[in-house]
Amino acid sequence: MGSPCTTELHKRRVCIGEPMREEILSAAAKRKLFFTPDAMEMILSNDHPMEFTNTVFSHLADNVMFVSKKDIMNCIAGDKILFESPREIAPHNKFTPDIHILKGTDITGESTCEGKINDFAQYFRARFFTLKRLIEKRNDFGKGMDISRAKTLDRDVKVVGIVYDRSTTKNGHVMLTIEDDTDTIKVFISKDSPLASESFVNDEVIGVQGKPNRERTMIIPDKIYRPDIPRSHQWEPSDTPSKIAFLSDVHVGSSTFLEDDWHKMVAWLKANSVKEDINYLVFPGDVVDGIGVFPDQDKELDISDIDDQYAKLAEYLKEIPDHIKMVVHPGNHDAVRLAEPQPALNQRFTKGFDSNILMVGNPIYLDVEGRTVLTYHGKSMDDWIAAVQNLTYDNPLSVMKQMCVRRHLAPIYGQRNALAPEKKDYMAMEYVPDIFVSGHVHGAGQEIYNGVRLINASTWQSQTEYQRQHNFNPDPGIMPVVELGTGRIRMHNFHEA
């Protein structure tokens, strides 16, 4: 008989070492669990101790605190599975996500607005100076002057201002009124000018180069400048194999939720996400259908309680492979304030969600393995489409390009899309994204604009009665996937599969 130091168990201990024991104990402590000595001996005797431990975690009863050998045996249904068939235990993905929120881009816990006059004044000042700075960074514009000074000169001037008003004269000329923190001035655009074909929306920030008229009450512009995404911005390839996927407008709770398509998608992720390196999954809002969002909505609901809708969503998300880091933010159907920027979902609704899910506000900038990802639900598209000729719900990517040109997600104030007057303008596109994703209009598409990957991320809801009345056909069941290394985009269709 060999001495105790030559037993198989001892050999395993020597191989595994104390670091493995500490790793297991630490993982248990995070779950407020404690292993008895005999339970720890059983775990360390397995060929894959950490993988086996994770399997035990997933099968333990909720009320267990002190885990014994008997508890483990109940989890794995006998010694045969434990010792003879360790490869039957689902492998643990060692991938460590590299994702964080860009500082200062999440309104969650930071809202200070009270709706007072001073709040609005501060909000528009913040917008003006943020976008003015971006215009002045353009190589072809440079430093602008105050409008008050420009009105004293009879030479070419450069100014930056917020569009206060836009009108068309009886002769067909375009008249803008712009303002900065010093004064206001009119900008006269002749109907014969190439600039007359440009679209302008209230509350956007523009740069104007031109000459004041004789009375110095208006500027006759030669050029109009916008903040825009620099043409020099390009996708710099990296060696990461990781991919990021997007699932917008899930609308859990709706009678038109496409459950079969959803399960097809989940099954595909289970079969392919590891080998495809799909490590991140972002939900850009309207994760549930909500309650009372539109008249007679109750007639189109399978789940009529808001808490139950989120509980059902939590069940669906538990089906997603564990290694995938998920990010969820609200849309206009979700149970947060309607005014944008919107904070993350309240803990009342997320208590049943896995800890693997990052709850954030709308919009949000994320850094994902060095890529800047801007995700915004897209409610402001309603205002863009109403205000700008040739923009339609059928082509959301064209709206997103206008957002990029103006470097603002929702410049139009006081229309269909409510905006909260915060101390800073969270809707301004202060950072240049590598990926810009939106939803809301239930379309699916992708395009590249000045190096930015524009994505409208489909829906998981079939045609609603409202859409039917307006002859709008959604493009459901599509999951866009972006390669973070190369920027390549693939649209995986689970509706037609």
Descriptive terms for the model:
six-stranded mixed beta sheet, Purple Acid Phosphatase, chain A, domain 2, 19 strands, OB fold (Dihydrolipoamide Acetyltransferase, E2P), alpha/beta
Task: Characterize the structure shown.
- With 497 residues, this protein is of the alpha/beta class.
- The chain has 3 domains: 4-88, no CATH class; 99-110 and 231-493, Purple Acid Phosphatase, chain A, domain 2; 139-225, OB fold (Dihydrolipoamide Acetyltransferase, E2P), CATH 2.40.50.140.
- It has helices at residues 8-30, 37-44, 49-59, 69-76, 79-84, 117-136, 147-150, 259-272, 306-318, 347-350, 381-387, 396-406, 465-469; strands spanning 34-35, 66-67, 99-101, 157-168, 174-179, 184-189, 205-212, 218-225, 243-246, 278-284, 325-329, 357-359, 364-368, 371-375, 435-438, 444-449, 452-457, 478-483, 489-493.
- The strands form 4 sheets. It has a 6-stranded mixed β-sheet with strand order 3-13-14-15-17-16, covered by helices on one side. It has a 6-stranded mixed β-sheet with strand order 12-11-10-9-18-19, covered by helices on one side.
- α2 (37-44) crosses α4 (69-76).
What's the SSE blueprint?
Layout: H1 8-30, E1 34-35, H2 37-44, H3 49-59, E2 66-67, H4 69-76, H5 79-84, E3 99-101, H6 117-136, H7 147-150, E4 157-168, E5 174-179, E6 184-189, E7 205-212, E8 218-225, E9 243-246, H8 259-272, E10 278-284, H9 306-318, E11 325-329, H10 347-350, E12 357-359, E13 364-368, E14 371-375, H11 381-387, H12 396-406, E15 435-438, E16 444-449, E17 452-457, H13 465-469, E18 478-483, E19 489-493
Parallel strand pairs: 1-2, 6-8, 9-10, 10-11, 11-12, 14-15, 15-17
Antiparallel strand pairs: 3-13, 4-5, 4-7, 5-6, 7-8, 9-18, 13-14, 16-17, 18-19
